[in-house]
Batch of 2 targets.
Target 1
Amino acid sequence: MLRLLFLSTPVGALGTGQGGGVELTVQNVAQELQQRGNRIEVVAPVGSKLQGISVTEIPGNLQVAVQTQSRDVPIILPDNSVLANIWGYARQVQSNYDLIVNFAFDWLPFYLTPWFDCPIAHFISMGSLTDALDRIMAQIAQQYPGTIGVYTKSQANTFSFADQCEILGSGIDLSLYQFCPQPENSLVWLGRIAPEKALEDAVAAAKITGIPLKIFGKIQDQDYWNRICQDFQDAPIEYGGFLSTQHLQQAMSKSRALLMTPRWVEAFGNVAIEALACGVPVIAYARGGPTEIIQDGMTGFLVEPDSVSGLVKAINSLAQINRFNCRQQAESEYSLTALGDRFRHWFTKILKS
Ligand code: HBI
């Protein structure tokens, strides 16, 4: 039994979608490890909510999303920073825990690591984004070997310390996702609506094929969304908002395919395994995490990055995919049990060293 202190991402309250994929990771790892009898406390910004997990809410101003910044951006903290307040709280309570697990993709947690008595594991949720973060992460990877975890090898490869990263993959609570054998004539796109996710390519593909595209996720960049609506006025698209897992899977499972169009190196792509769990094939640019998830031609298609015509070609080949294989792959590789085993194994290794 371990006593674990999870320190969340400071860009948004858990459960709002503002924190992107890492929100699902915090929920799922906390849920699975608590289920196994470990004591978990999650510390996150005010307004955070997790299913069945107690959250200590910390006030303060949210951190700017790092992917909106340039590589040479200075280290920035807002006044009354929620990130600083979270770590101030952690310092006070650290003696009650065996391990602190950091889920923030920010400079401060790495800088503070040597100042803490309690061991710290850092789960990083994206690929390389800024020079200051690369440097401090490399320092911690070198000073505390084995304490940096990532989703995928392709994400790790964006860093100089790739070989020291623990590859943890991802996982979801499969009981929340219902397999749908017979889809309606629609496509689906999921994720934070922001430039790095290149929603415009999926909209362009929907316009060419004439297949309606359902869009779900938090509008993180309103101007970006307005531009898409402006540029593609006659595209068959429908925005369904940011839904809870239960409603999302109901809406998504009826789709013929999920389109994933990342402009950046997608660290994992939790949306891909959510789709597979519903039996929905995934058509994705061959970039980052999806290249390690999708079995090309079996559970979806990997498309030449940034090629809309490639997306269209894949959409027209969907008949060859057996939707049951998609669900099968989710069950064999992305269950919560498998995820819990990987994280537990990682924590045990850290505590032994
Ligand atoms: N930006 N500064 C900062 N800190 C984070 O923890 C962070 C972020 N941007 C996005 C993000 N985390 C999550 O959405 C990742 O899952 C992508």
Note: The domain at 3-171+335-352 is CATH 3.40.50.2000 (Rossmann fold).
Target 2
Amino acid sequence: MLEVEQKVIDELRQGEAYEGIQGEGLHAEKRFYIESYGCQMNFSDSEIIASILQTSGFGSTRNVDQADLILLNTCSIREKAEQTIRKRLTEFKKIKKQNPGLLIGILGCMAERLKSKLLEEEKLVDIVVGPDAYRTLPGLIEEAETGTKAVNVLLSREETYADISPVRINSNGINAFVSIMRGCNNMCAFCVVPFTRGRERSRDNISIINECKDLFQRGFKEVTLLGQNVDSYYWVDPITNHAVDFAMLLEQVALISPNMRVRFSTSHPKDITEKVLQTMKSYHNICKYIHLPVQSGSTRILQLMNRTYTREWYLAKVKRIKEIMPDCAISSDIIAGFCTEDDQDHLDTLDVMRISMYEYSYMFAYSERPGTLAAKRYKDDVPEEVKKKRLEEIVSLQNKLSFESNLKDIGKKVEVLIEGDSKKSNLQWMGRNSQYKVVVFDKSDSSLQPGDYAWVEVTDCTQGTLLGKLVS
Ligand code: SAH
Ligand code: SF4
Ligand code: F3S
């Protein structure tokens, strides 16, 4: 179970607040503290929120005891995610009891899912703001300062925060996430995201390119283009009527500089196109790594999940990716114990994992979410202990596959973007190769530093890491 816990914690990892400059104006004396949960999109939103608050004069703090305003950017994807946040909220409420002037705001997906119900359930919360209403945050804070509870959970069909320049929170100055679209139009039966993030909309390509160029000029070496379903990115310029699809956007970002890597996440298997694969192949700096969540290996379950592809269709996609880019790594999301899943369905999932030879997977036990299609239509009928046992089997198979994939790399020379010291020793660098694998090697060349590329020969590996030595 350890591995599952670790992956889940990784996904729910806490975003500390950052120390920013103190602004001017109405809130010049005030400081906010923000903590983020959930997916990368949420972390990216916190950077937009920080920017909005800074512009309205707020300063920031990493120390919750110094804050005038505590913000929690929340996730609803599984019940456990919400429980984690409620627990954290209990701690903040204790601080508020000692400091009644302190404001507490709940942002993000849980705010959107529960709306003003959150204020009834959590009496000490002052502000509730959904993912499309962050521009109104300064006004809502003013309202809350007068003692009125403030809520804005309106979803929008247009909001992309395109013009807001995110403040990079806890950045290593090397990798940055760039949001290219918001919302999701798919209706996977298990998923709460379409309800918490609203309709899909793409951000204009020029603002994306400008943000990426600016990052590169500031020394960043890797951008990850983010969306719930990046392959359905589509922007039509209102003046020229010129349309940009995801493959074109990817190419435009790749052309900024061969020294800046480009990644993207997430791809829905039904939407990733041949054109995207060919574009990936054409550019060295587009990383050879695709996150292609399968969710289940059983066609019957996939249909119930409303994923719109079959097991065979998915496997054909994997095969095509490997034909075009034999070195492309593929990772997946897998749900164990979806409604009606039987032993054979589970074996089908294990089988798809083996055939796809995933480099990594994010693995979850099914958690029913109120309001979703599955909650309305099906019974959550797989007993918890069965879900847990299946999940353990999935995790242990993935561990084996990750190790096997790493073993195959021994002897290869890989290009690594150095991110910093390795976890275990400051005499070693840690970085990633194009396939997103962690590579650790001795600092034998003193001229290298984080943000540099290095060629490393892989000499050994563990399940999670490639170990190697620098080659000239
Ligand atoms: N848009 C992305 C992922 C969104 S959520 C995509 O389509 O891949 C990330 C993952 O959480 C999903 O891929 C799914 O595996 C998992 N997930 C979503 N809802 C879940 C639920 N109700 N129970 C368990 N896992 C869930
Ligand atoms: Fe959820 Fe499916 Fe949309 Fe992903 S594609 S966010 S799993 S509805
Ligand atoms: Fe969670 Fe919302 Fe992301 S539900 S996974 S924070 S889109």
Note: The chain has a mean pLDDT of 93.
